[in-house]
Amino acid sequence: MAIHFFSEDIAFELQKKLRHKRWLKNLASGTGYQITELNYVFCSDKYLYQMNMDYLNHDSYTDVITFDNSEKDFALAGDIFISIARVRENAKTHAQDESSELTRVLAHGLLHLMGYKDKTEEEASLMRKKEEEAIELYRLT
Prior knowledge:
The chain contains 5 helices and 4 strands; from the N terminus they run E-H-E-H-E-E-H-H-H. By secondary structure, it is an alpha/beta fold. The mean pLDDT is 96. The radius of gyration is 14 Å and the shape is globular.
């Protein structure tokens, strides 16, 4: 299992990396998945916007984009890009502290790799429920 955290075009250092790795591993294994190679890349709004345009043809800002590189069932591999500026903005908008919002977005990307979607209201509702469960798991980790 390999989980890595990188910064691209911004200065950002994730605190408590080992705790986050343990939590992400537990989050995946709790539903029968194993992380084989997972890269989180923290970046700027501009960087993620350009990725959204270039790779997904979406003309919008977002907090997270997940690229699934998995080759086997239940073996997760991927790259998850997170806009730290968007995380901070969302935290203010939803009256959350930045740490909780970042935890939500870290989980959101992993949940996408596990097959959860958020395009319909029903999918989004289930995604929010899973995010809340993931945040609670983080608090217990």
